[in-house]
Amino acid sequence: MVEDPLATADCLQITREVGFDQLLTGRGGKPYTTSCPLPFQADSVKTARDVTRSTLRGWGLQDLSDDAALVVSELVTNAVRYAMRSSGRREIELLLMRVSPHVLLAVADPSDEVPRRKEPDFVSENGRGLYIVETYSQSWGWDRLARGGKAVWALFRTEP
């Protein structure tokens, strides 16, 4: 549930004004962003968790790192899975952006397939990713990228 819809809107407005494409390539020039290209392989999930934890620690937000690492694991896992289906490019990129009182995590992938949350089947080994993202983050969504593909994002509140 979104506790402060105006602050959330402000955070998301920044991504729309600057654009995920610029933020992901570093052309946004903002000191409160970290982006990391990830190879198209399964161990990118661990790399994304490590970058997320390290970045949050550097921002003094260690308390958020477990939930954020879990969510970024799900987002990167989905990106790897859907990038396999797309032809051509296979880059995945992680973006972390701090806009107090929020942290926005985004994972870009080349797939144009729209992310859809399914009702979780707790017996199955897959299909719970976006349910986990929704459960642990304040809100989540996705945006199309100008270069093709999409960025799936999750928003976290940094202050109680």
Automatic annotation (TrEMBL):
Pfam families: HATPase_c_2. InterPro entries: Anti-sigma-factor_SerPK, HATPase_C_sf, HATPase_dom. This is Histidine kinase-, DNA gyrase B-, and HSP90-like ATPase. Residues 39-154 form the Histidine kinase/HSP90-like ATPase domain. The keyword Transport does not apply. Keywords: Kinase, Serine/threonine-protein kinase, Transferase. The keyword Transferase applies. It comes from Nonomuraea coxensis DSM 45129.
